Amino acid sequence: MIASEPARKRDGFTTSLGVMAATLGSAVGLGNIWKFPYLTGMNGGAAFIIIYLLCTLLVGLPVMITELIIGRTARADAVTSLQKLAPGTPWWLIGAAGVLSAFLILGFYTEVAGWVFAYIFKAARGMLSSTQPLVTSKVFGNMVSNPVECLVWQWIVLAFISVIIIAGVSKGIERMTKRLMPLLFALLLIVCVRSLTLPGAARGLTFLFKPDFSKVTGTTILTAMGLSFFKLSVGMGTMTTYGSYFREEQNIPATATKVMLADVLVSILAGLAIFPAVYAFGFEPDAGPKLLFITIPAVFTSMPFGQVFMVLFFILAAIAATGAMLSLLEVPVAFLNERLGWSRSISTILTAISLALVGSTAALSNSTLAEFKIMGKTMFDLFDFLSSNVLLPLGGLFLCLFIGWQFGFKNTVASATNHGALHNEAIVTLFFWIVRLVTPISVLIVLLNGLGIIA
Ligand code: PHE
Question: What structural domains does the chain harbor?
Answer without folding.
Answer: 16-450 (1.20.1740.10)
